[in-house]
Amino acid sequence: MRTDYHSHILPKIDDGAKDVEMSMKMLEILKTQGIERVIATPHFYLHKQKSVSDFLRKRDNALKKIDSSPLEIVTGAEVAIEHGLSEVKDIEKLAITGTNLILLEFPYSHFAEWMIEEIHNVTYEHNLKPIIAHVHRYIPYYNKSDMEQILKIDAIFQVNNEALRIFKEKRLMKKLLKNDFPVVFGSDCHNLSSRKPNFDLLFKKIKENLLDESDFVFEKYSINK
């Protein structure tokens, strides 16, 4: 099932879709582009949220508003890596529903060892498999050595479709695919203009077997197998 692993299509919960109308239009575009399953990953910032349970309540309420979606919607979160993240109560509930996959976003700041430690603790203390969100987007912020450390993480690496438009990001994507890193694709769509659904970019450039491998990650890490 063709899957978008990273999207902000839920209405009025983060900096993504501003209302139900926009959410539905984004979903319709994804459908026309060949997507069948979209994983809704609203931002989760530990320093902004009251609790995981409060975030889940807001997410579920947003999901109910688009219950007539033309696509299968699976809930998850884009979880910012922060100090103490691995110690948060119910952190495992931010995993993609039905799997033990959790989408983690690095800070856009100087790289530090504690970030790797938090990922390690999230992984092994909570029995979760990390997906590193839009790994190519960290290139302007982290040096070559930092990026090498990130790529050594026992994780799946999520790539945004727009990476195909930027030379350095496209080069990293090709490196990941050539060296058989586990990769999943996502639109990271937020709206209908500057960050719209864009799987039309990907399907023109990526071989079908690589798309199939990306789609299968959901089933591979399903806890309902």
Report the strand count. Answer: 9
Give the radius of gyration.
16 Å
Secondary-structure element pattern, one letter each: EHEEHEEEHEHEHEHH
Task: Tell me the strand percentage band.
Answer: 15-25%
CATH class value = Alpha Beta
Largest sheet: 6 strands, parallel
Q: What is the CATH third-level topology name? A: TIM Barrel
What does this molecule look like?
- This protein is α/β, with parallel strands linked by helices and 225 residues long.
- The chain has one domain (3-220): Metal-dependent hydrolases (TIM Barrel).
- Helices cover 34% and strands 16% of the residues.
- It has seven helices and nine strands, in the order βαββαβββαβαβαβαα.
- The chain has a six-stranded parallel sheet. Strands 1-2-4 form a three-stranded parallel sheet, with helices on one face.
- The protein is globular.
